[in-house]
Design a protein that fits this description.
By secondary structure, this protein is an alpha/beta fold. The protein has two domains: 30-58 and 144-219, Rossmann fold (3-Layer(aba) Sandwich); 68-143, no CATH class. It has eight helices and eight strands; from the N terminus they run E-E-E-H-E-H-H-H-H-E-H-E-H-E-E-H. Strands 4-5-6-3-7-8 form a six-stranded mixed beta sheet, sandwiched between helices. A two-stranded antiparallel sheet has the order 1-2. The protein is globular and about 50 Å long. One of its GO terms (cellular component) is plasma membrane. InterPro entries: AAA+_ATPase, ABC_transporter-like_ATP-bd, ABC_transporter-like_CS, ABC_transpr_LolD-like, P-loop_NTPase.
C-alpha cells in the first residue's frame, strides 16, 4: 500500500522563518501518530505541512484555536465540516433553514462528544472545553482518510480526553495528533514523533517509548 505522505530532508517554517530542519518521515495508512514536545517546538508547523501535502485527500482538521465562528450556532459550526460536499445554493439554504435530517446528522456527532441538545446554542456562549468538543464534532461529521489534530483534547479531563481520542481512532483510518499528555499519547498512539531543538529527535513505535524517554523531550 502506498504511503499517504513522505518528507525527506525538508526544512519547514512560516515564510522565511525556519522552525524545523531536516524533516524526514513517511506516514503509512492505518498509523496513529502522536506528536510530542515542548510548546513552540514545531508541532503545529509539522501538522500544517502535512495538511498541505494531504490536500488531495479527504482530511479532517482540529486546529488548536478550534477554527469556529462565534456568532454562529453549534449546528452551523459543525456543518462546516461538510461545506465542500455541496454547492453554494445548498449551503446557503442550510445556513438559513437546515432540514430535520441535517440537524439529526449533526445531533448524532454532538451526542458522541457530549454536547447533546446544544445545536442551537451560539458558539460564543460556550466554554473552552465545549468549543473544543464542537471542533471534534465537526471533524467527526466530515470524516475522511486522515484526521490531523493540534492539541485536540487539551481542555478536557483525562478520562474524557481518552474517550474522545478513542472515538477519533475508531472513526479515521489514520491520525496525526499533537498531544500535551504523555500518558494519553502512550495509551492511544501506535507511533511517537518527538520534537526537540528544531528537529525530529524520536520516531519509534509506542512500545519502544517508555515514559522516561518521552519526558526527555521536555527537559
Amino acid at each position: 500500500m502506498a504511503a499517504l505522505v513522505s518528507l525527506s530532508g525538508e526544512r519547514l517554517g512560516w515564510g522565511e522563518i525556519p522552525v524545523l530542519g531536516d524533516v524526514t518521515l513517511t506516514i503509512e495508512p492505518g498509523e496513529r501518530i502522536a506528536l510530542l514536545g515542548r510548546s513552540g517546538v514545531g508541532k503545529s508547523t509539522l501538522l500544517a505541512a502535512l495538511a498541505q501535502r494531504l490536500a488531495a485527500r479527504r482530511v479532517a482538521l482540529v486546529p488548536q484555536d478550534h477554527g469556529l465562528v462565534g456568532p454562529l450556532s453549534v449546528f452551523h459550526n459543525v456543518w462546516m465540516g461538510r461545506l465542500d460536499d455541496a454547492g453554494t445554493a445548498r449551503n446557503l439554504r442550510i445556513l438559513l433553514r437546515p432540514s430535520a435530517q441535517e440537524r439529526a446528522q449533526v445531533e448524532t456527532v454532538l451526542t458522541r462528544v457530549g454536547l447533546t441538545g446544544m445545536g442551537r446554542r451560539r458558539v460564543a456562549q460556550l466554554s473552552g472545553g465545549q468549543r473544543q468538543r464542537v471542533a471534534l464534532a465537526r471533524a467527526l461529521l466530515r470524516g475522511g482518510e486522515v484526521v490531523l489534530g493540534d492539541e485536540p483534547v487539551s481542555a478536557l479531563d483525562p478520562s474524557q480526553a481518552a474517550a474522545l481520542l478513542g472515538d477519533l481512532a475508531a472513526s479515521f483510518p489514520t491520525s496525526v495528533l499533537a498531544l500535551h499528555d504523555v500518558t494519553l499519547a502512550r495509551q492511544t498512539a501506535t507511533r511517537i514523533l518527538g520534537l526537540k531543538g528544531g528537529r525530529i529527535v524520536l520516531d519509534a513505535p509506542v512500545a519502544d517509548c517508555p515514559r522516561d524517554r518521552l519526558m526527555d523531550l521536555y527537559a
